[in-house]
Amino acid sequence: MTLPDHAPDGGAGAALHHRALERLYAAAPVNRLFNSRLEITGDGAARIHFTIDERVYHAAGAAHGTVYFKMLDDAAFYAANTRITDRFLLTTSFNLHFTKPVKSGEVIAEGRWISGRKRVLVGESRLTDAEGDEIGRGTGTFMRSRIPLSSLPGYADPA
């Protein structure tokens, strides 16, 4: 699939890119470890649904911080990667803030692109628990890699 560097929201190219990013997320081996699903909600926006259970607990019986990082990073990353259609982005830095522990249930990670269009992009994300309370937030910096998206398993159209 060859798309322009950025396909504006609403265009057929953008929709193809968004579905391809969702397939890419689903195909990543690390995501077999989590009960999660990516939904690209528009240009510069991503939502990931996670289910938290005791498999991801730390010793005190709540979700470990690595899970918070995974959820926040993925949401901001995929929101930013909606803006780049030819290359895979790499996380170069990520700051996160834990607001509240979570023990179980669905967590929604909402990510959005903030700035950057060419080489470096910035995204932010927010986690909410099943009651709608914020449990964490973060900001990431993502850099365009040399890896073509079209070369990655899952990104190419399965048809």
UniProtKB/TrEMBL annotation:
It comes from the Bacteria. Pfam families: 4HBT (PF03061). InterPro entries: HotDog_dom_sf, PAAI_dom, Thioestr_dom. Keywords: Hydrolase. Coiled coil: none annotated. Gene3D superfamilies: Hotdog Thioesterase. Residues 61-134 form the Thioesterase domain. The keyword Hydrolase applies. GO terms for molecular function: acyl-CoA hydrolase activity. SUPFAM superfamilies: Thioesterase/thiol ester dehydrase-isomerase (SSF54637). This is PaaI family thioesterase. It comes from Tsuneonella suprasediminis. The lineage of its organism: Bacteria, Pseudomonadati, Pseudomonadota, Alphaproteobacteria, Sphingomonadales.
